[in-house]
Specification:
The complex is a heterodimer of chains A (587) and B (188). The longest helix of chain A is centred in the first third of the chain and has 11 residues. In chain A, 30% of the residues lie in helices and 18% in strands. Chain A has 20 helices and 23 strands. The chains are: A alpha/beta (587), B alpha+beta (188).
Chain lengths: 587, 188
């Protein structure tokens, strides 16, 4: 058969042009991956027409390789530091420098309109290079939990990127006390739809926000740093299209409260998260509580009862984020009221119980109510003080839409009602077949080796797992590693496994491409780690450090444990490791 | 540093254990030594928080250091306490830093002498046939130490954003009050 005929046979008789059109409708990255594996022709068409790529760890490939394969990329997401960086566990200078990528983008990616950098180091100079080459066409720039830049860099963006629709700097560490960049943004841009500098320390002047609202009539989402809400009265009157507002602050909670009551929120506002909001101020939400779809109460001063009072007015809530001060009682209200709830995050409150509501604990009672009441739940992340197998079984029975489940057992209570959780975890994983992301952080005795084996056995769809303080011995880990056919990313903390077992598990898990471990049984000279050495597998060792500032513990105890990070890479060994990171090579 | 620092060492290469084993029959003193030659399983600095007085002040006339290390044979990493050096310990209520190295981590505690002794006793008793405890991944503390919450493990890390919020809230609670100064208003 001639090559041309073979080609047509492989393409089902479809011409190349038609194929390109068809593949233009195929967006899902998994579908695209499948397409690229069919034959060389399909690989080429996919490569030239791929619009978006997410690189889960920036050292797994190189900017040059990306350019050679996907030269017409319109949107790129890059992730740098390991996830543990969000918990202060990774040295600041670990890596994730965006410089080499920006240089490649500036030179070669002529179609790039959208850039999302997560947990990377971005310097002002990088911004300068980026906006010089791509500023005129950049529509979306997200610097998500990044560090290294200053307000000077933001000024460059504000002046050069007139097409920017989305600018997000959420939780980034940005130095500089200058608020000029917001003014420049307001003056130079008229198409901005989303501006987000939530959870930053950036200064903001209310009049610049008003100017922004006047000039950018499409502004639908604004999330800012701390700025007393009463200064935004004019802003809210001007930004009539606003649907989402986050940040702000309530600085005067003992004086004149009327000034907060005077605020008139925009008519379409349905996503709200106000920092330091207290019981007295939450009434300003009541007039439109029934329209609320997203509510972030993680940074408020509300008690358990306050949560109940507020949430019972929100029957249309789809996304709710709270601390565990919500308590079982609050979860009962959620279960009865929020029938459309899709995402629920219950974060860990202050350990100092004097500051949090006494009722502020979540346990099996709250979880069971929640499971039975909110059948649409897709994402559940919860810090509990107590738990039972029955509660997990309940979730397995009712929460059929669950895709992302994370449970952390706090160490507040000495005795937990029902451990180990082997049967509950099994029931949960069996019942919730759609789960793709799974985290379980317990305490010794929380999950036996048998339970760990269950996780392996029933995690058919799971791509990411985080486990802490689970299992009893290496046997458990090895049993676990016989399952989890699709597990790509594994994070382990504070476990009792030896280096040898970790290495064997890493070799055995068929889809594993990323492993992070902190807290394990080390071999005397670390050589068991090299049992998992293989081609294209980068291993990094971060030895324990002694830096008081870097730990959460403020009682003067200096403490830090060694970490192992391993990942597949086509880019070879890293060349930019700091002293605190040791790349391991087999001898 | 001037007044007779006391170093207590655990011999993680088991040199003392081997020596003591050969002298066990002959030497009465080494009976004490062999009693103390115990294997320490998962004793973790965090385990000891419950015994540490919160108000302990730093005044080190003597230093005590326990070197614990784990080997590649779980769950019995070996440590040896050499009692001969320990004999210098004075009876005093002053606190001294106790440094514990374990499994790649280091923790420093300021303890009065009697608590340090208790901890060292705990190290000895921890593995007397307590394999079932090890299966549960913990060490049963002697009664007198079993007070309050037991934190046996490395502290659970908290998200940065929440950490900042909790710190700010504490700040506001101390600063705020009916007589607190008015906060500066930005220019309009």
């Amino acid at each position: 058969m001639s090559a041309r005929t073979l080609n047509r046979v492989m393409s089902f008789g479809i011409s190349d042009l038609a194929l390109e059109f068809v593949l233009g409708y195929v967006d899902d990255p998994r579908d695209r991956e499948a397409v690229s594996l069919v034959c060389k022709k399909w690989y080429q068409i996919d490569a030239l027409s791929r619009k978006h790529v997410t690189i889960a760890i920036c050292y797994s490939t190189s900017p040059g390789r990306l350019r050679r394969r996907f030269p017409n990329l319109e949107s790129l997401q890059l992730k740098g530091k390991p996830r543990a960086a969000m918990f202060n566990l990774i040295p600041e200078d670990w890596g994730g420098y965006v410089g080499p990528w920006i240089r490649e983008i500036a030179e070669a990616f002529n179609c790039l309109k959208s850039l999302h950098l997560r947990r990377m180091i971005v310097k002002d100079e990088d911004i300068r290079v980026l906006v010089k080459a791509r500023g005129h066409m950049l529509e979306s720039l997200k610097l998500d939990k990044c560090s290294g830049l200053s307000t000077d860099g933001l000024l460059l963006v504000a002046r050069s990127c007139r097409c920017l629709r989305i600018l997000s700097l959420e939780e980034s560490s940005i130095s500089g006390n200058d608020a000029k960049w917001i003014h420049e943004l307001a003056v130079n841009n008229s198409v901005l739809e989303t501006l987000n500098f939530y959870m930053t320390e950036l200064r903001v002047a209310p009049e610049d926000l008003e100017l922004l609202a006047k000039n950018c009539r499409s502004l639908v989402s604004l999330k800012i740093s701390e700025c007393d809400i009463s200064y935004l009265i004019s802003f809210f009157l001007i930004a009539t299209k606003l649907e989402e507002f986050g940040g702000g602050s309530f600085n005067d909670q003992v004086g004149d409260l009327d000034k907060y009551m005077k605020i008139q929120f925009p008519p379409k506002l349905c996503c709200v998260g106000l920092i330091f909001m207290g019981k007295n101020e939450m009434e300003i939400l009541f007039p439109f509580a029934a329209a609320l779809k997203k509510l972030d109460l993680q940074y408020t001063f509300l008690s358990t009862e306050d949560h109940c009072q507020l949430i019972q007015r929100c029957p249309n809530l789809e996304v709710l984020e709270v601390r565990d001060v919500i308590g079982d009682r609050g979860l009962e209200v959620v279960a009865q009221t929020c029938k459309k709830l899709r995402r629920l995050r219950i974060e860990r409150g202050d350990d100092d119980q004097g500051l949090e509501d006494e009722q502020g604990c979540v346990s099996q009672a709250g979880l069971s109510s929640l499971a039975q009441g909110c059948l649409e739940l897709e994402y559940l992340a919860v810090y509990v003080s107590d738990i039972t197998n029955a509660a997990l079984e309940c979730l397995g029975t009712y929460s059929k839409n669950l895709c992302d489940f994370r449970l952390v057992l706090l160490d507040r209570e000495q005795r937990i009602t029902d451990l180990p959780l082997d049967n509950g975890v099994r029931a949960l994983l069996k019942g919730c077949a759609k789960i793709r992301r799974f985290a379980l952080y317990l305490r010794p005795g929380g999950l036996s080796d048998v339970g760990l084996g269950y996780i392996g056995q029933y995690s058919n769809n799971v791509r990411w797992i985080l486990m802490g303080n689970i299992g009893e011995s290496d046997r458990g880990l090895l049993r676990f590693s016989q399952g989890c056919p699709r597990l790509q990313k594994l994070e382990l903390r504070s476990c009792c496994f030896t280096e040898r077992a970790l290495a064997m598990a890493a070799l055995r898990l068929p889809s594993l491409r990323y492993l992070w471990v902190q807290g394990y049984v080390a071999s005397p000279f670390g050589n068991d780690l090299l049992l998992m050495a293989r081609a294209f597998w980068n291993i990094e060792f971060i030895p324990p450090k002694h830096d008081v500032n870097e730990t959460e513990d403020r009682r003067g105890n200096i403490e830090s444990q060694a970490q192992i990070l391993a990942y597949y890479s086509l880019a070879g060994k890293r060349v930019d490791c700091p002293d605190s990171v040791i790349p391991l090579h087999p001898a | 540093m001037a007044r007779g620092d006391t170093m207590v060492e655990h011999d993680f290469f088991q040199i003392e254990k081997l020596k003591a084993a050969s002298f066990r029959a002959a030497d009465g003193k080494s009976a004490a030594r062999s009693r103390i030659q115990s294997v320490v399983s998962r004793i973790n600095p965090q385990l000891l928080r419950s015994v540490i007085a919160p108000g302990a002040t730093e005044m080190p006339p003597e230093k005590a250091a326990l070197l614990l290390s784990s080997s590649s044979q779980p769950p019995h990493p070996v440590t040896i306490l050499n009692p001969s050096i320990r004999s210098v310990a004075e009876i005093s209520n002053e606190t001294a830093p106790l440094t514990i190295f374990y499994n790649g981590s280091m923790a420093v505690f300021d303890l009065p002498r009697d608590k340090a002794e208790t901890i060292m006793k705990l190290v000895e008793t921890a593995n007397d046939g307590s394999s079932s405890d090890q299966r549960k991944g913990g060490i049963r503390l002697p009664e007198e130490l079993d007070g309050g919450k037991i934190q046996e493990l490395p502290p659970m890390a908290r998200r940065k954003s929440l950490q900042r919020f909790i710190a700010k809230r504490k700040q506001r609670l101390t600063v705020a009050g009916p007589y607190a100064k008015e906060k500066a208003v930005p220019k309009r």
